[in-house]
Amino acid sequence: MKIGYARVSTHEQNLDLQLKTLEDAGCNEIYSEKISSGRVIQPELEKALSRLREGDTFVVWKLDRLGRRTVELLDFIQDMQQRGVAFQSLSDGIDPSSAIGKAIFTIAGAFAELERNLIRERTLRGLEAAKAKGTKFGRKRKLGDKQIEMAMKLA
Predict the structure, then answer these.
(1) Which of 9, 36, 97, 98 is flagged as catalytic?
(2) Known catalytic residue: 98?
């Protein structure tokens, strides 16, 4: 059996491309969710993994849908191999059951982790630059100064 997993990080993002690609790859079951890979618990991923049996294939659209840290990805693949489950990453074309595939998988995982770290760095730099310009973050105030003053008098 082929079990597919699709994930996007935010509710604004769309799963359609991943779902279509997994369907076209012949997945019998597809689990999907809109949740950050940084979350410790990914309920739909857990469901998908619990359905896997020896001889099944676990399919993702792209490697980084599982996570961004190379160590986590390598542990994941090792766990799949120990369970007798094949792994397929459609966009990356990776077969980690061979020595070359495992090396490519390691390199691809390292690049996914690098990409995530670069995004984090750019985001932090952007926030720092915005703060330096005087940009205010957070929710806008509901009450003006006069209203706050009046409320304090009433209290």
Answers:
(1) 9
(2) no
> Model confidence over 139-152: pLDDT tens digits?
888 888 999 999 99
Give the residue, 35 or 29, on which the prediction is more confident: 29
Amino acid at 22: L
Q: How many angstroms from the chain centroid is the CA of residue 135?
A: 29
Residue type, 111: F
Residue 43, CA distances (Å) to 40, 48, 53, 85 in order: 10, 9, 18, 20
Task: Report the run of H or E that residue 106 belongs to, with start and end.
Answer: helix 99-132
Global model pTM greater than 0.85: no
Q: Place domain 2-119 in its CATH homologous superfamily.
A: Resolvase, N-terminal catalytic domain (3.40.50.1390)
What residue has token string 């720092």?
128
